[in-house]
Amino acid sequence: MLTLESVLNYFLYLMGAFLLLNCLYLLFFTVAGLRRPQPRRAPGPTGPPARLRSIGVLIPAYRADDVILETTKVALRHQYEGVFQVVVIADGLRPGTVQLLQWQGAQVVEVAFERSTKGKSLLQALSVLPPHAYDIALVLDADNIMGKDCLNHINSAFSAGYRVVQTHRTALNNDTAFALLDSCNEEINNHIYRKGPFSIGLSSALIGSGMAFDYAYLKQLLAGIGETVGEDKEMDFRIARDQVKVCYLDNTYVYDEKIEDAQVFTRQRTRWLASQLEFLKKYAGEGITQLVKFRNVEFFNKSVQTFLVPRTLLIGILGIFFLQALIIPIGPTPGFWAGLLLLLAATLLLALPGRLYNWQLFSAIVRLPYAIFCMCLALFRINRTKTSFLATPHKARVHSTNFK
Q1: Over pLDDT 90: what percentage of the chain?
Q2: Among 186, 221, 298, 318, which is 20 to 30 Å from 242 by CA?
Q3: Does residue 99 belong to any structural domain of this protein?
Q4: Beta strand residue intervals within 158-297, DSSP E
């Protein structure tokens, strides 16, 4: 008969094995990301290289009156050799804001829902716009700023044969410890889930904004998107099922406002955790089917990612197990847990770009315990996403002329 101590011992060793696999997965794609990305050419036929495609810059704006006027103004000034149009999808914007957007030169599509999501807003806008309004649709958030030559680089990727492109989304602001922590998290994600896979021939993961699609294909991807809070992850799985390659443009930037305080950080992470849990339930089984029946490594890899413990929580969990092993000597030794913590720390530091190694990084690391606490709060608030969009608030910022 198994004693309670035996059960705990087995449980701790199983947890140790699971968390070790988590760390090894992150390490593998971190090392892969150190390689140069593959040549930017999609498999199969490619389009004519000289063609300048028309681009619709779609900006869903949910109650974002404080920021949308400034970001739209900057977007309209963007330099592109072809034709592009800024389309603001206004959900809950004030009438005065809508009028000013139109005066600036943006096209405005007004939408309204009982429960708003970005996916529903995009789908509604595409049903209102002409079926062949543009060749490419670029999706931005209400606070995003396109970097120099962003649209030209996207057009070049489509000329190389890609139908879906993810740009390098990066921080617009690092003015608080939490903003810098969020910025570091974004860059680590870029390295592990975008640059790493793309460097070894897999697709980049989508990130929710700064992503461009063949216009007709985007409408197909959004069909029946429902009320998911993770429309980018849903599209990720649909693209993987279609076995369409997603290009990652590591040197093409879209600037994004980072979280500046703990309350907003917790709200955003609640939405992210709910999204991961949703797709774990929905696609874990299909991932195995896709691998065995269709040899779809891409889809299987996406499904594996739904099992990964979010990194901030992973740091906290490993720390707790290390302390437990010191106090109660059952399960793996303290050295094992300490080794995993060191492996994870080395992996994350390796994935972090050199430009973020500065004196401010220490202040961000000091905030990690509080960030772990916020992630724990987010776990207990997941059910809130069933009744609320939990949109991230943004601040209006004056942008320099460098974002042309």
Answers
A1: 72
A2: 186
A3: yes
A4: 164-171, 211-214, 246-256
Is position 401 within any domain? no
**Closest among 143, 141, 274 to 208, alpha carbons compared:** 141
Q: At what angle do helices 231-242 and 297-305 cross, to 10 degrees?
A: 160
Q: Are residues 82 and 109 in the same domain?
A: yes
Q: Does residue 244 lie in a domain region?
A: yes
Task: Note whether residue 154 is domain-resident.
Answer: yes
Q: Which stretches of 190-261 are DSSP H helices?
A: 196-199, 215-222, 231-242
One-letter amino acid for residue 254 of the chain:
V
C-alpha Rg value of the chain to the nearest Å:
22
Note the pTM of the prediction, 2 decimals.
Answer: 0.92
Do the strands 211-214 and 136-139 form a parallel or antiparallel pair, or are they unpaired?
A: antiparallel
CA-CA distances (angstroms) from residue 103 to 69, 97, 106, 253, 379?
11, 10, 7, 27, 43
Q: Which amino acid is at 6?
A: S
Beta bridge pairs of residue 150? none
Q: What is the mean pLDDT of residues 372-398?
A: 69
Query: What end-to-end distance do the CA atoms of the chain give, in Å?
Result: 71
Rounded mean pLDDT, 304-333? 95
CB atoms under 10 Å from CB of 381, counted, come to 16
